[in-house]
Amino acid sequence: MVLSLEGHESGVATYLSAIEPATKFVTEWFGKPTAPIAIADFADPHAAPFESGTLLMVSMAGEDTKLAGINLVHELVHSAFASPRPWVSEGLAHFAEAVYREQQGGREAALDLIGLHRAAFLDSEKEVAAAAEKNAGQPLINTFDETYYRSKAAYVWWMLRDMVGPAALKEAIRGYRAADDADPKYVERLIESASKRDLSVFFDDWVYHDRGLPDFHVQSVHPWKDKNEKAGKEVQMVTITVENLGSAGAEVPFTVQCEASEITNRLEIRAKSAATTRVELPCAPVEIVINDGSVPESDLTNNVFRITEQ
Ligand SMILES: [Zn+2]
């Protein structure tokens, strides 16, 4: 149902044409939307969107197709999927917005969208990191603080999708039953059983406690040549050690650039530790970039490492 004001006809048309692709996307991830959703128009084009249940109030004065699709996806997730835990219901709705954006505009566009959430919880997470007492902050599992259950949760779901892959996460979501979500570890177990992967450390750092954010930097880089017996020639290798100065661990993507190409891999670095990995390259490495923006970090200024003369 779309309730609209006179003069906003083209905005309404934008919403109506976005319904079908948005519904198809949401059905694939969350099952068929069942509860009717309502989009109601605001007279003031600058009014901030507001939602209640499956009702979204948003100005339809604009004709931004991307925004219309994203807003619809959010409400359709609520229509298809319910959870008593805000980090699950709202976190997944915001996560779905980003995945939908990725499907249409690519990963970078999705990370730009999810990046709008970063500022919301960055300051409170910095306070958590600085706090002396152990139980500072807001564990996602039972938070009713919007910045956490919307903004931080969107990132947590995105990181989980990157870690276990879309197929396993979809399976876990489709297996979710609100009535069964009593044990705090219910969601972790669903994703673990779908992905056959131990996620206890991740859930401990991001969901059951609020440990602040990671802070990655390249600790050392060592380019070297290896003999490839099969190919009968030397290959370029690089050994990279990344340190995490923060109190939350994460699996983070990193990119090694050389003259003509780049290689992106992922590396898990636990809280207050370092991890080492090696990468084979087609040419000599010149730069390493940790984190494409998919892992929220307290400091993003120390993530690029230039490799000088070897
Ligand atoms: Zn919502």
Name the strands of the widest sheet in spatial order: 1-2-4-3
Class from secondary-structure proportions = alpha+beta
The helical percent reads 40-55%
Q: Strand portion, in percent?
A: 15-25%
Query: How many structural domains does the protein architecture include?
Result: 3
The global form is: globular
Question: Which small compounds were modeled alongside the protein?
Answer: zinc ion
**How many strands in all?**
11
> What integer value in Å does the Rg equal?
22 Å
Low-confidence stretches: none
Distance between the termini: 64 Å
Order of helices and strands: EHEEEHHHHHHHHEEEEEEE
Averaged pLDDT:
91
Q: Please outline the major beta sheet.
A: 4 strands, mixed
Number of helices: 9
Account of the 3D structure:
The structure is a single chain. The model has no long low-confidence stretch (mean pLDDT 91). The strands form three sheets. The protein has a four-stranded mixed beta sheet with strand order 1-2-4-3, covered by helices on one side. Helix 3 runs antiparallel to helix 4. It has helices at residues 9-30, 65-80, 86-105, 107-115, 118-130, 146-164, 166-175, 186-195, 200-208; strands spanning 2-3, 38-41, 50-52, 55-58, 216-228, 233-244, 250-258, 262-269, 273-281, 285-290, 304-306. The protein is built from nine helices and eleven strands. It has three domains: 2-81, no CATH class; 103-208, no CATH class; 216-306, Immunoglobulin-like, CATH 2.60.40.10. The protein is globular. The chain is of the alpha+beta class and 310 residues long. It is 41% helix and 24% strand.
